[in-house]
Amino acid sequence: MATAPRAADEQGSLTRTQWKQFWAAWIGYLLDGFDFILITLVLTELADEFDLSLVQATTLVSAAFVSRWFGGLILGAVADRFGRKGAMIISIFCFAGGSFLCGLSWGYWSMFVFRAIVGIGMAGEYASSVTYAMESWPKRFRNRASGALLSAYPIGVVLASQLYPLVVPSLGWRWMFFIGLFPAAVALWMRRVLPEATEWEESVKRGAIAENTAIALLFNPARRLANITISIVAAVDLVVIFSRTVTGPWVVALALVAAGCFFVLARQLADGKTGMFVMLIMTVLTAFLYSWPLQSLLPTYLKTELQFDPAQVAQVLLWAGLGYAAGSVTSGIVADRLGTNRTYVLGLLISLLFVVPVFSLSSDHVVWLWVLLFGLQFFSQGISGLLPKFISDHLPVNVRASGLGFCYNVGALGGAIAPIMGASVAASLGLGTALTVLTVGFTVLIAILVGFDVAGRVGRIGSGVTKDDAGASL
C-alpha cells in the first residue's frame, strides 16, 4: 500500500475536510430516515382515505423495499466505477423526488410506485454515503464512522415524528411528504464542493478500480442482456408478491423465482465468494426481521392498541429515536475498542431485557414507556449502526459500494416482509404480542449469525484465506 494512505490511516485525529465529508453523508442519511418513516406515521390516514385494510396499507411500507435491491446494485455500481460523490447526489434526487410524488398520489397503486422510487434512492444513499464516509476516515475510526453515520436515520425519524402532530391535523398527510424537499436541498448544497472519498481515489490511482467493478462484472456485453432480463423478472416478481396480487402457493413459487434471480446476480458479483454474499444477505434479512416489525408498526400500535393521539405518538417516537441515535454513536465508539462483532452481539443480547416490559405497559405508564423504548432502541436499533462496517469488512474496494448496496438491500426485503408478517401475526395474537415474539426470535438469530461471523466462515471455506487477509484491503 502506498505511503500516503498508510499515513492517513495512522493519523490520530480527523481533519476539517474529513468532518465535512462525514456531515455531507450524515445529512443525506437523515433525509433517508425522514422520508422513509413518513409512510408509517400516516399509515392510518392513508388506510382511511384509500379505503385499505391494515394489511393492505402495510404493503405501502413494503413498496420501497421492493425496489431497494435494484437501487443498491445500480447506484452502488455507479459509485464503484465513477465515484461515491456522484452516486450520493443521484440518490438524493431519487428519494426526495419520490417522496414529493407521494404527496401527489391519488390511490393505492400510485403511492406504491412512488414509494418504490423512494426505495431506489434510499438504497443508493445507503451504499454510497456509507462507503463515502468510511473511506474518507482513517481505518482506526471506521466503526465510529459507521455508527455515527447511522445515527442520522433516527434523527430524521424524530424530526418527522415531531412535525406529524403539527402538520397532519391542520394541513393533512400530503404536506408531510412535501416538506422533505427542504433537507434534500441542504444535502445537495453541502455536497457541491466536497472532494471524492480518499480511499476510492487512491484505488483509482493504483488501477484497482479499472477492472472487476460491478458494471464490468454484470453489464459487460456478454452478460448485459441476460442480467437486464433477470433484473426485470425479479422486479415484477416482487411487485406481484408484496402488493398481495397473489396469495397462497403462488407467493412461495414467486419467492423462489426471485431468490433464483438474486442468486444468479450475486454469483457474478461475488467473483468466487458466492457463499459469503448469500450469508451476508441472510444476515441483513434477519436484522430487518428483528427490527422492522417494531419500527414500521410502532406508530400503529400506539394509535390502535394504546389509543394515543398524534401528540402522544410523537413524544414516544422522540424518545425511541433518541435512543436509536445515541446507541448508534455509542456502538461505534465501543466497537473501536472491543471489536465490531463482539460489540454487536453484546448490544443485541442486552436489548432482549427490554422487549417484554415495553409491550406489557398500558397507556397509563407513559413515562416508563419512554424510558424502556429509549433503552430498547439504544441496544437493539442503535447497535445496528455497526452493520455497514460488518458488511464492508468482507468486501474489497472495487465492489464495496455495489456489494454493500446489493447484499444490504436484498436482505432489506426483510423490511418488506416484516410489517406484513407483523400485521398477519397480530390478527390472531394482537399487535403487542406479535411484535414481542418477532423481535425476540429474530434478535437471537441475528446474534448467532454475527457472533459466529457465519458469512466470513462460509467465505473462507476451501479458500485458505484468513479473516485478516480478507480484510487487508479495507
Oligomer: single chain
Terminal-residue CA separation: 11 Å
Shape: globular
Assign the CATH topology. Answer: Growth Hormone, Chain: A
Helix content: over 70%
Q: Give the helix tally.
A: 24
Please, what is the average pLDDT?
81
What does this structure look like?
The chain has 474 residues and is mostly helical. The chain has one domain (16-470): MFS general substrate transporter like domains (Growth Hormone, Chain: A), CATH 1.20.1250.20. The chain has helices spanning 3-10, 16-41, 43-50, 54-82, 84-102, 108-136, 142-150, 152-171, 174-178, 181-191, 198-206, 214-218, 224-242, 249-270, 274-304, 310-338, 340-358, 366-379, 387-392, 400-411, 413-429, 431-451, 454-460, 467-470. Helix 2 crosses helix 8 (152-171), helix 5 packs antiparallel against helix 6 and helix 17 packs antiparallel against helix 22 (431-451). The termini are close together. The model is unreliable at 1-9 and 464-474 (pLDDT under 50).
